Amino acid sequence: MEEWVARHMDEPECFFMWQVEPSVIFGRNQDIYSEVNLDYCRQHGIQFYRRKSGGGCVYADMSNVMLAYITTADEAQTTFEHYMKMIVGVIKKMGIGASWTEHNDIMIGDRKVSGNAFYHLTTTLGGRTVGRSIVHGTFLYDTNMENMVASITPSDEKLIKHGVQSVRQRICLFKDFTTMTFPEVRAFFRNNLTDKAVTLTPEQINEIEELEKEYLKPEWIFGKNPNH
């Protein structure tokens, strides 16, 4: 949907949120075999997908929300900074101090609540060739910590236990800082970052589903010589 919006919607800025069933989403240039614990994922019903942006593996489930921002701005760092300011500004409006790092993480104190990545494409809109930038990231309201750790590390019980403790010291869950429910937090983002909504037609959804097929091909997920 991000790619479809970037290629087809002639708007200077678009924002939407999405959620997935338990999934590992890894960067364009990563080797799935060294980054993802495929056995654990298959045993626990965790899906795995390759995205078109760079960066590392993330685990996502229905307890956290994914943020997507599409803009006509071309330059990566300028786009990142604008996006970070927007998201940090919304968090601050909720009464919670937040900041961002040079690694494009959003922090509450010294712990990470959101990781973000970027990619750029060129498309034709209104008869002109334009560049479109996509920034997307995680927002950890809550999550299954054991799945997060085990799906991208060896499934040894001691390692998982140590990994959960270690990761829990580096990341934070937004629910620990607010009395707002998860639906209230999502609504707050939507109300503070958007001023209108676009509803897609069935035909447009069909186009997105066609585009999705490319992302689901084994050669895209596993690489050019899939061994799965």
Automatic annotation (TrEMBL):
CDD domains assigned: LplA
Example of a GO MF term: lipoyltransferase activity
Protein's UniProt name: BPL/LPL catalytic domain-containing protein
Every BPL/LPL catalytic domain range: 9-201
A Pfam family reported for this protein in Swiss-Prot or TrEMBL: LplA-B_cat
Pathway(s) it belongs to: Protein modification; protein lipoylation via exogenous pathway; protein N(6)-(lipoyl)lysine from lipoate: step 2/2
One GO term of the biological process aspect: protein lipoylation
Gene3D superfamilies recorded: Bira Bifunctional Protein, Domain 2
PANTHER family attached to this UniProt entry: LIPOATE-PROTEIN LIGASE, LIPOYLTRANSFERASE 1, MITOCHONDRIAL
GO cellular component: cytoplasm
